[in-house]
């Protein structure tokens, strides 16, 4: 056993050294070995607008809109204070002029997805959000996020003030309560969009049970808002807040019982019955979503998914739409209208370098008049761009950036093909623009604070219809806004005329008839989102659809209608269950039935149950009270932003005690982090202690993310303790004189100290590609003590303790340069589509001089629901000290590289040569070297998962089964590999294993892999089991 015992001891002892060497070189703190990048494309010159209760951070271009947002925030403060009853200390609001700017924020360290309206982070309750260009939507999002501020404040308040439980208790509450409450308190109970979701659930008898409300498939915003509205409407809005406060201190089911005198199951059952009583009569006589018009796509029994924003080609032959059919991203697909078959995927978020992401929630694309090209909105280099793709070649031929406009939505092509009009966002407000494709000139058609969105160019080229809140119902001094209505602007004169339709409800998404005399619009006068048609000359209105759920896009203000300019056929998306179906009506069927203003008599369909509470609701009354709490800007003051570090988090002090035959040990640690208000500058400190004073370790870092070049500085002192034992024959003195043979047991305690200073920068070229550079100084020192025991006749005698010989210290400078690419998408346990690579060189100079070179390439080919995964890896040291015995050798048998060859699984009996006297063991020796390579193939099969990514659907414990083949080789400069496949050989031959791996997602906390492998180059070994806590490569 001596040979392998020494190997195992060395592996344990040198593992910390490998860790320190890796820490010295490869990457700065914000980066990972792989992973996507958060890119700050531009510098924002922030200032602070100080209102009575908030510090509103903004930059000059959005100054006017920010002052209005500050007034909104103060009004929401008064509204929420009246319900929560406890004041909130001063908080920060960080505003961005557009969603494209917002995606660059450092307040939220993770990526911000398309459609995220705002974020309230937990540590300091900072609200970060973009201005949308629609004042009513700004007001709603701000009200929603400020509910979270009051929720955090309540969680942190002492129990005597009705709070308690801390941030942790808030984090344990279900999202349906936390987010649903925020949505209800900011929107109220008159919400046709949420009512549409609830009607669909009632129609399909799919209202969730209480236990299902936490299912990820149940949208917490919509269902939570509806349930909170029911609680507030039946027991009073104050009771809803009391329920929330009690749930911070007690289990939610107990809080429901105490506050509502019902069990949780009874609450949901009675809510369900209330919705049935409200919505079933309203839906009577209306069309099932599956029966509205005709299907556009060949569904073949497919459940409705995310197929939205249809845009039909001018000749009506093809329809483009956004869809989640590619599973891991939203892409644009083209379908043949005649057959319903998808003929191409126009974009691929994992297969393009043209843009970072599609902008799809509030967007639809536009066809060129000849049907050859398709224009759509992308996110690229920190702003929205217009991308123009040739449909036949599926290739982006042109990308257009509009100077001074960071947000773009709803492009519409002019009938002559020369100009594209769009809604542009600058300074936080939306206006209409045109872009001349020939000259590149930009023309601004509107310039005011009103919302100007969803433009549609008339077939005769003279006018553009659009949705706007301009009109008598909007008073920006009082911050009251009319619902969106329709207006038409003359392109030549820029004269605007309103199109009277329905009062008091949103009307949007205008689309022209081929003769330019009428418009189709989307409106909710009776609470149902339906398509209406209006004759521009006479004002006559007809209702085109009569759905039980509603015609809708992803969000309430998303586009959902398109008209073929030559045929007049109407295409639209209709909501069904939790997805959308694309449907169509020919021109004759789309003429509709006449309607009058009496249609609003049935508007209860757009209310949340119980409908009668709309007249008595405290929330409803306060939302519509525009004057209470509204302050003037005379109480505001301004100053330049001065970054100041504030505590984000401090970990609880941890202390542990361990006892073994080596003695009793104590360990503990604590860490803390600070950042400035914008998250641009970050500081972290960690301290750990074990045993004696010399075992105290510490690390600190400073991270500057303000610029695109992300800078990092760090320093650390980290001790590692290693215990190991050797046994040898010896002699000892015995009482009475003389000596006797005994077994000498040497118990070593080795300390390895890693001292390091490091600096690094990362430059992200895009969200998927970056350059990493770093440099540092490192010192590794050693201290060893030994306790010697003599075992004689079954009795152990203490021979004392002494310092033992230790390796001399190492000092060296180390650098690194790496090019990293990663556009992969992660499934439940491993990447399933896209690819990754890392090319890195890390030189070291000093007591050891060498270059560490890494080439790591991975590719994932997805064929729903399976993934074929490949990895090729080369890792090697080169240079004069690359094979110094003071460096731990590289080991290709690690289970993450080649399964079945773990160092701890070897037995001396496997060695084909004798092991006495320290002779070689080729079965093990071939696994170590100064250079290693590995190749892996896997077929990843999602056994248990979701409907879209899993052979069997389950809510718990996703499982992936992966048949695999692993291969690897290790070599040195003096011992090259012999490239043959052989099971037995004294040479350095490649090692190969095959088997089956099972990976388990353990409740989102970690990934457990269990594998069963056949290692072919261990001829005396059969199949072996292995376990590792790592996601798939």
Number of helices: 13
Fourth-tier CATH superfamily name of the largest domain: TolB, C-terminal domain
Structural class: alpha+beta
Spans where pLDDT lies below 50 across 5 or more residues: 1-31, 659-663, 914-919
Q: What portion of residues belong to β-strands?
A: 35-45%
Kindly state the mean pLDDT as a whole number?
91
**What Rg is obtained from the alpha carbons, in whole angstroms?**
33 Å
Write a concise keyword list for the protein shown above.
six-stranded mixed sheet, 20-stranded mixed sheet, alpha+beta, disordered N terminus, 16% helix, 5 domains, Glutaredoxin, 1033 residues
Describe the structure.
It is built from 13 helices and 54 strands. Helix 2 crosses helix 4 and helix 7 packs across helix 11. With 1033 residues, the protein is an alpha+beta fold. It starts with a helix and ends in a 5-residue tail after the last strand. Helices cover 16% and strands 39% of the residues. The protein has five domains: 1-30 and 645-822, no CATH class; 47-158, Glutaredoxin; 173-284 and 605-630, no CATH class; 289-595, Neuraminidase (6 Propeller); 824-1033, membrane protein fhac: a member of the omp85/tpsb transporter family (Porin). The relative contact order is 0.09. The strands form nine sheets. The protein has a 20-stranded mixed β-sheet that branches. Strands 4-5-3-2-1-32 form a six-stranded mixed β-sheet. Mean pLDDT is 91; it is low at 1-31, 659-663 and 914-919.
């Amino acid at each position: 056993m001596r040979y392998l015992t020494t190997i195992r001891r060395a592996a344990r002892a040198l593992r910390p050294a490998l860790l320190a060497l890796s820490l010295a070189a490869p990457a700065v703190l914000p980066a990972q070995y792989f992973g996507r990048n958060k890119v700050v494309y531009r510098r924002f010159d922030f200032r602070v607008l100080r209102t009575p209760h908030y510090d509103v951070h903004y930059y000059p271009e959005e100054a006017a809109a920010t002052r209005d947002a500050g007034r909104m925030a103060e009004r929401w403060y008064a509204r929420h204070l009246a319900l929560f009853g406890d004041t909130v200390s001063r908080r920060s609001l960080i505003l961005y002029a557009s969603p494209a700017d917002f995606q660059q924020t450092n307040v939220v360290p993770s990526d911000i997805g398309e459609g995220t309206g705002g974020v309230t982070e937990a540590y300091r309750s900072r609200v970060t959000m973009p201005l949308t260009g629609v004042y009513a939507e700004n007001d709603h999002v701000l009200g929603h996020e400020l509910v979270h501020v009051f929720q955090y404040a309540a969680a942190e308040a002492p129990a005597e003030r009705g709070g308690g439980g801390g941030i942790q208790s808030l984090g344990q509450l279900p999202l349906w309560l936390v987010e649903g409450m925020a949505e209800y308190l900011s929107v109220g109970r008159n919400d046709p969009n949420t009512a549409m979701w609830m009607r669909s659930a009632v129609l399909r008898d799919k209202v969730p049970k209480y236990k299902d409300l936490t299912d990820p498939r149940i949208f917490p915003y919509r269902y939570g808002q509806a349930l909170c509205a029911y609680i507030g409407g039946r027991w009073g809005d104050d009771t809803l807040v009391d329920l929330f406060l009690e749930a911070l201190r007690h289990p939610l089911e107990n809080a429901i019982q105490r506050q509502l005198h019902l069990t949780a199951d009874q609450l949901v059952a009675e809510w369900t019955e209330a919705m049935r009583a409200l919505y079933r009569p309203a839906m009577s006589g209306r069309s099932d979503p599956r029966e509205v018009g005709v299907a556009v796509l060949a569904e073949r029994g497919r459940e409705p998914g995310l197929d939205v924003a249809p845009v039909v080609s001018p000749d009506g032959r093809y329809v483009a739409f956004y869809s989640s059919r590619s599973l891991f991203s939203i892409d644009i697909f083209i379908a043949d209208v005649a057959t319903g078959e998808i003929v191409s995927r126009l974009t691929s978020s994992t297969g393009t370098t043209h843009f970072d992401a599609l902008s799809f929630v509030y967007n639809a694309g536009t066809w060129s008049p000849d049907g050859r090209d398709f224009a759509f909105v992308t996110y690229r280099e920190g702003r929205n761009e217009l991308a123009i793709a040739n449909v036949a070649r599926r290739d982006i031929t042109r990308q257009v950036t509009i100077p001074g406009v960071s947000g773009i939505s709803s492009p519409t092509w002019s009938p002559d093909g020369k100009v594209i009009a769009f809604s542009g966002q600058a300074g936080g407000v939306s206006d209409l623009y045109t872009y001349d494709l020939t000259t590149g000139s930009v023309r601004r058609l509107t310039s005011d604070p009103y919302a100007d969105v969803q433009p549609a160019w008339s077939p005769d080229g003279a006018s553009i219809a659009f949705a706007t809140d301009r009109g008598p119902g909007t008073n920006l001094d009082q911050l009251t806004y009319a619902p969106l209505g329709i207006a038409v602007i003359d392109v030549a004169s820029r004269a605007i005329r309103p199109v009277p339709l329905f009062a008091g409800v949103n009307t949007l998404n205008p689309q022209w008839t081929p003769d330019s005399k009428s418009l189709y619009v989307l409106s909710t006068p009776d609470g149902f989102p339906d398509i209406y048609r209006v004759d521009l000359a006479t004002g006559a209105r007809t209702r085109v659809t009569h759905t039980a759920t509603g015609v809708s896009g992803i969000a309430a203000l998303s586009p959902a209608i398109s008209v073929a300019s030559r045929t007049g056929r109407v295409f639209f998306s209709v909501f069904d269950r939790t997805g959308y179906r694309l449907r169509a009506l020919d021109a004759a069927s789309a003429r509709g039935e006449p309607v009058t203003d009496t249609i609003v008599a049935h508007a209860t369909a757009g209310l949340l149950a119980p409908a009668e509470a709309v007249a008595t609701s405290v929330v409803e009354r306060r939302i519509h009270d525009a004057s209470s709490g509204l302050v003037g800007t005379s109480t505001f003051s301004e100053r330049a932003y001065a970054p100041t570090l504030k505590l984000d988090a401090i970990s609880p002090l941890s202390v542990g005690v361990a006892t073994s035959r080596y003695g009793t040990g104590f360990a503990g640690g604590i860490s803390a982090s600070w950042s400035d208000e914008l998250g641009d500058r970050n500081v972290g400190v960690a301290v750990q202690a074990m045993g004696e004073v010399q075992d105290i370790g510490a690390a600190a870092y400073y991270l500057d993310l303000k610029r695109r070049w992300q800078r990092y500085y760090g320093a650390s002192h980290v001790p590692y303790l290693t215990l190991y034992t050797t046994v040898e024959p010896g002699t000892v003195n015995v009482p009475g004189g003389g000596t006797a043979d005994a077994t000498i047991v040497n118990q070593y305690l080795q300390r390895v100290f890693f001292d390091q200073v490091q600096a690094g920068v990362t430059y992200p070229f895009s969200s998927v590609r970056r350059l990493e550079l770093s440099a540092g100084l490192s010192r590794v020192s050693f201290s060893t003590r030994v306790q010697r025991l003599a075992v004689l006749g079954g009795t152990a005698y203490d021979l004392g303790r002494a310092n033992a010989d230790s390796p001399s210290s190492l000092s060296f400078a180390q650098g690194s340069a790496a090019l990293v690419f990663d556009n992969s998408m992660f499934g439940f346990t491993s990447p399933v589509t896209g690819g990754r690579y890392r090319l890195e060189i890390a030189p070291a100079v000093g007591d050891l001089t060498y270059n560490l070179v890494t080439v790591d390439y991975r590719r994932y080919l997805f064929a729903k629901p399976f993934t074929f995964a490949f990895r090729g890896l080369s890792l090697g040291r080169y240079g004069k000290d690359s094979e110094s015995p003071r460096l731990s050798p590289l080991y290709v048998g690690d289970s993450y590289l080649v399964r079945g060859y773990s160092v701890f699984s070897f037995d001396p009996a496997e060695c084909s040569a004798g092991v006495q006297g320290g002779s070689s063991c080729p079965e093990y020796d071939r696994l170590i070297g100064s250079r290693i390579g590995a190749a892996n193939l896997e077929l990843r099969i999602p056994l248990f998962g979701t409907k879209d990514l899993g052979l069997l659907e389950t809510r718990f414990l996703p499982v992936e089964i992966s048949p695999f083949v692993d291969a690897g080789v290790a070599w040195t400069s003096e011992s090259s590999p012999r490239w043959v496949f052989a099971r037995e050989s004294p040479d350095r031959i490649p090692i190969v294993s095959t088997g089956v791996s099972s990976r388990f997602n353990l409740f989102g906390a970690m990934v457990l892999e269990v594998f069963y492998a056949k290692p072919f180059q261990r001829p005396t070994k059969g199949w072996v089991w292995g376990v590792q806590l790592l996601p798939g490569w």
